[in-house]
Amino acid sequence: MNEEQRKEWIQAAKEQVLRNARETDQCERDLMELYSECAMQLEKEIRAFYSKYASDNQLTETEASRLLSGKEYSSFKRSLEGYLKEIETGNDSGLILELNTLAAKSRISRKEQLLSNIYRNMAHLAGRSEEGLTELLSDLVKTNFDRKMFDIQRIAGVEWKAAGIDEGMLKQILSYPWSGKQYSQTLWGNTDKLAALVRRELTLGFMSGSSVDTMTGKIDAVMDRGRYAAQRLIRTEASYFSNQGQLLAYKEAGVEKYRFLGGGCGICQRLNGGIFSIEDAKPGENLPPIHPNCKCTTVAAYDIPVFKRREGNPLKDNPKFQEWKKRQMKAEEEDHAEPGIKGKIQSFLDDRKARKDASAILEPYADRVKVTGDVNMRNYRMAAAELERQLEKTPIKRLDQIEVFDSRDAPGRMAAARGLSLRLGTDLMNDPEHYYQGSVVNWQDRMDRILQKLRSRMQGAPSEELQQKYSAVMEQKRYSRGNVLYEGREISCVIQHEMMHIITNDKGLKGDRRLIECYNEAIQRGDIYRISYRAAANEREFLAEAGVMYENGEPLPDYIREMVREYKTYEI
Asked: Which of these, 94, 108, 102, 79, lies nearest to 197 by C-alpha position?
């Protein structure tokens, strides 16, 4: 690399650092507004609490610990249970655990009611902060990849089509716990710590008979600590994901080494100018961030024109990024365009071979196998592993048939079991996450959208039919999810579900009295709502859905767990 190229690299890196900083600053401002809103809401909750229960602007521990009346408790219970059904979090948050604990209590004190309201506000803060941070980090990965690839091609003087970052790769990058914890876990963990500090300040304040102004001042101080932790998290994670986007560009372009470019950090001074292998890049050691709030970055380092062998088009002097990006996007669209006749023939042959290979994966588990549609080999191997695990537990060592059917012939159906035959849909085998999103993550939102449409129609032309539909959807909304599915294990869950049907078929237990009694008991106790909407259809679906929960270790009431166990172990 000559001196002119080295200066170009450094200048391009500085400009990208500034672009990253502007994006990060905006995200930080947005999150700080969320913290300010939360702090104001907490103060509002505390002042309302004092206004209702305090005497002479002071409140004792005795008064704060008094139990709610029956009517107050009922209102509290309904509100909290409704909230817990709506909130979505993929982490084992202490806040949500605390709220579930409060929801399970048969008696609640005034102080616990206040804590519940505070926890809900803080969980809302964590959820919205996670959304904002995820959006920022996703954008930083993609824009830093694009910008670094553009700089590489611009300085080399050759343009070629870059592979880009697809959604699957992006999701994998974002979910990697590079610092020991994934960023969302850290964010929720920090909020849990804040909640614990707020609880401590409230308890001490009630014990000492603090005034409302003293109490709200203490809570503001706690929230200030939360702001600092959030700012540090944003800047550190932004540094990591920006540099990951650049690292991916280096790998895509064939750059083997990078130069560490210091951002003025005293801690990183020893690394400034150092050259490291791409394969040996380690965040915290030789790749930014080296420490919290790290501002360092990297530039490509190569001694020979490594791109001379690349096939591509010469780039004119001073190319514009936006023009380059449009050409890249056009090339991507052309790659996905309808192929010519030769390409169609090759595609047909490739598809046929893929289906043959997929059938071979499933053949050890059934006498007959039929595969149609596109094939995702990873998912077929996952299905085979689950089938092997399930069949080992039963006297049924081999099914009569396994068929992968075209989902267009049965829209919305994931799978089915008849006798000792298993049918799996192509949509499930190629896009299983779609079902998890619809049945679990977006379940409540789906119900809310349907209700909103029905309310609009009822305002225009109310009818008994619309009212009945509205009531039916309100009932659906009471269920925790549509189907029992777990993220990343959707195919396994569906096979577990259908195997419960196959076991029932094999034992000839359709209409089993004990199962029907267990199903009816779950409805009467309300336990059915914690399983799934599908479980409410009939006793067989109830058993199958509970079976998936049993397999994946999700808690079940004892009487349901015992029923499932007996079926699975053939003790029925």
From this structure: 94
**Cα(126)–Cα(131) distance, rounded to whole angstroms?**
9
In terms of Cα–Cα distance, which of 496, 507, 510 is closest to 422?
496
pTM assigned to the model:
0.58
pLDDT, residue 341, reads 45
Residues of the chain with pLDDT under 70: 1-2, 86-92, 302-312, 333-351, 508-511, 570-572
Phi-psi region of 414 (alpha: psi -120 to 50; beta: other; left: phi over 0): alpha
Res 404: pLDDT: 93
416: CB partners within 8 A, 6+ apart? 422, 423, 498
Q: Closest by alpha carbon to 126, among 187, 42, 38, 57?
A: 187
Q: Where are the beta strands (DSSP E) in 147-277?
A: 158-159, 257-261, 275-277
The answer to whether residues 226 and 192 touch, using CB atoms and an 8 Å cutoff, is no
Q: Is the peptide bond before 364 cis (omega within 30 degrees of 0)?
A: no
How high is the pLDDT of residue 92? 64
| CA trace torsion 462, 464, 466, 469 (10° rounding) | 160
Which distant-in-sequence residues (6+ apart) come within 8 Å of 547 by Cβ? 496, 497, 499, 500, 564, 567, 568
Can you give the pLDDT at residue 350? Answer: 59
Say how far apart CA 538 and CA 531 lie, in whole Å: 13
Amino acid at 49: F
d(CA 175, CA 149): 23
**Spatial distance between the Cα atoms of 436 and 456, rounded to a whole number of angstroms:** 29
Angle at 164 between CA 145 and CA 285, to 5 degrees: 40
